[in-house]
TrEMBL record:
Repeat among keywords: yes
Keyword annotations of the record: Disulfide bond, EGF-like domain, Glycoprotein, Repeat, Signal, Sushi
Domain EGF-like: from-to ranges: 10-46, 48-84
Protein name, per record: Uncharacterized protein
Pfam families found in the cross-reference section: EGF
InterPro entries listed in its UniProt record: 6-blade_b-propeller_TolB-like, EGF, EGF-like_Ca-bd_dom, EGF-type_Asp/Asn_hydroxyl_site, EGF_Ca-bd_CS, LDLR_classB_rpt, Notch_Cell-Fate_Det, Sushi/SCR/CCP_sf
Disulfide bonds: 36-45, 74-83
Species annotation: Strongylocentrotus purpuratus
LDL-receptor class B repeat residue intervals: 327-369
Domain of life assignment: Eukaryota
């Protein structure tokens, strides 16, 4: 019998069988198995293995199953595979002009406060930065860039009082600013420099002092002079003058009586222009014209005994005055109807004017303007002529005042106030030198007849006017700024001629004020020069200094030898 061969075949059970999800089918006897891809299980690999089982997503994260793995959906502020890493800001970095940053990281929501370096500042809102998350919560960053602090400065220091304008608009800490007082003002130098200073925190800068107040520079007390009246002021302002007054019976060059408060070139120091003056007992000369003598003018030292001598003159000298600028006496001559001038010894005589149509009377000189004023008898007017240095003589006169209704006699000048005064029969009038003002009557008395004598005390304020009436033997004084308020002097003159009968009273021809005393040319039983001292006090004294060499005293002139 033959051999029987039996063949067996394994049926491939994988045929038509699907291992899912990438699984590999493995044929078995009468069966199959699937070798699943990672992450799957089950007979046919149809089951996704839950990788989240036993897996922890930290810090509130949510596990998300993946194929053969998982992922965590982290809560805001965390990251990493299992949300283990907290999201943070790094170091906020140093700002500009700030203190060094003191942290290396920051947590979300956490602020960090910068601090400006000492002496620097910034808007406080720019000093705080906050660690912030993005919308996904995955990135943290600081809310602002690091701040830039600016240097703390002082503002403009502001102008002081009486100072030069400030030249800066700001100041740096530690830097000074020096004020300068305006010209003519000063202050303690320690108050002129201010410094820009920081407060202790270094956040605020301010000036160390308020702007200074400079005070006007002044001269102190000018000090009493020698033989002067007591000084009446305690200080003087720049440009201000103070006029000393010599004590009674003393005199000095008038140019030395006025001191002026002056500034130095820098305007920081004021001082008086001259030292206080020294007034000395005056040495003066008295000149007298004589109606009874010809070709001479009499002169004497002004002292107790008047020892008159004569100097050469023209034929009939009458009215006389003095020019202290050129040191010359001027006089009118009744016969020649001219004005002459000469040295005080009568030498170097020259004609000043041409011959006039009628007699010339009082003359006076305005030394500042170098003008000679002349009273004319007929027509009644006042003329003027220039006597400026270098002028050629004789010169023609110009009318100054015309239309005068009474006879003219004496003239006087007040250079300080700028007036020419003249006396007439019953009035005393004045007019400004410049001719611009109106003629003003300062005294009027219809009971008078011939106000032949006129003199002014310019040391008083207001000046005092002295006058005498030749016919009425009236002599009086009054303030220059009042009308018809006179003080009689004749009653102080204890002399029988003056208090005698009516026909004997044509005696007081001229009057002159000098250094506190009054002098008259006096005719009569004992003729000469009448002198009244201390006329306005209880210690009044009167005497007549007889002068036999003068037959009929007419007009007098007294000159301080300091002016000769």
């Amino acid at each position: 019998m033959g051999q029987v061969t039996i063949r067996t075949y394994d049926i491939d059970d994988c045929v038509g069988t699907l291992c899912l999800n990438g699984g590999t089918c493995m044929d078995d006897v009468n069966g199959f198995s699937c070798k699943c891809a990672p992450g799957y299980t089950g007979r046919t690999c149809n089951i996704d293995i839950d990788d989240c089982v036993g897996t922890l997503c930290l810090n509130g994260g949510t596990c998300m199953d993946d194929v053969n793995g998982f992922s965590c959906k982290c809560a805001p502020g965390y990251t990493g595979r299992t949300c283990i890493i907290e999201v943070k800001c790094g170091s906020p970095e140093n700002g500009t002009n700030t203190e060094s940053v003191s942290i290396t990281e920051g947590y979300p929501g956490e602020p960090y406060n910068y601090t400006c370096s000492h002496g620097f500042t910034v808007d406080p809102n720019n000093l705080t930065v906050v660690c912030q998350l993005n919308t996904k919560g995955t990135i943290a960053s600081w809310s602002l860039i690091p701040p830039t602090c600016s240097e703390v400065k002082c503002g403009s220091p502001g102008n002081g009082t009486n100072t030069e304008s400030v030249s800066i608009t700001e100041g740096y800490p530690g830097k000074p600013y020096n004020y300068t007082c305006s010209h003519g003002f000063t202050v303690d130098p320690n108050n002129l420099t201010i410094v820009c200073q920081l407060n202790t925190k270094g956040t605020i800068a301010s000036w160390s002092l308020i702007p200074p107040t400079c005070s006007e520079v002044k001269c102190g007390l000018p000090g009493n002079g020698t033989n002067t009246k007591s000084v009446s002021i305690t200080e003087g302002k720049p440009g201000e003058a103070y006029n000393y007054t010599c004590s009674h019976g003393f005199t000095v060059d008038p140019n030395n009586l006025t001191v002026v408060c002056q500034l130095n070139t820098k305007g920081t120091i004021a001082s008086w222009s001259l030292i206080p003056p020294t007034c000395s007992e005056p040495t003066a000369k008295i000149f007298v014209t004589d109606e009874g003598s010809q070709n001479k003018i009499f002169v004497a030292d002004l002292q107790d005994d008047l020892n008159f001598t004569d100097i050469p003159s023209t034929k009939e000298p009458r009215y006389i005055t003095y020019d202290s600028v050129e040191k010359k006496i001027h006089w009118t001559d009744k016969e020649t109807k001219r004005v002459y001038r000469a040295d005080v010894d009568g030498g170097n005589r020259e004609n000043v004017t041409f011959e006039s149509s009628d007699e010339l009377r009082g003359i006076a000189i305005a030394e500042t303007s170098r003008t000679l004023y002349i009273a004319n008898k007929s027509p009644r007017k006042i003329t003027s002529v220039s006597i400026a240095k270098g002028t050629s003589f004789p010169r023609s006169e110009k009318d100054f005042v015309t239309g005068i209704t009474e006879d003219l006699y004496s003239l006087e000048v007040d250079e300080e106030e700028g007036f020419l005064y003249w006396s007439m029969q019953t009035k005393i009038r004045r007019k400004p030198f410049n001719g611009s003002g109106q003629t003003e009557t300062i005294y009027s008395n219809k009971w008078l007849a011939k106000i032949t004598g006129l003199s002014i005390d310019l040391s008083r304020d207001p000046p005092l006017i002295f006058a005498c009436d030749y016919e009425k033997t009236r002599t009086f004084y009054k303030a220059a700024n009042t009308k018809n308020t006179e003080n009689e002097l004749a009653y102080l003159m204890d002399d029988p001629d003056i208090s005698g009968s009516e026909e004997e009273q044509e005696l007081l021809r001229d009057i002159s004020y000098f250094n506190g005393s009054l002098y008259w040319t006096k005719d009569g039983s004992h003729k000469g020069i009448a002198v009244l001292t201390n006329y306005d006090s209880v210690s009044v004294s009167f005497q007549v200094k007889e002068a036999d060499v003068i037959s009929k005293p007419f007009q007098l002139l007294i000159i301080d030898v300091n002016l000769m």
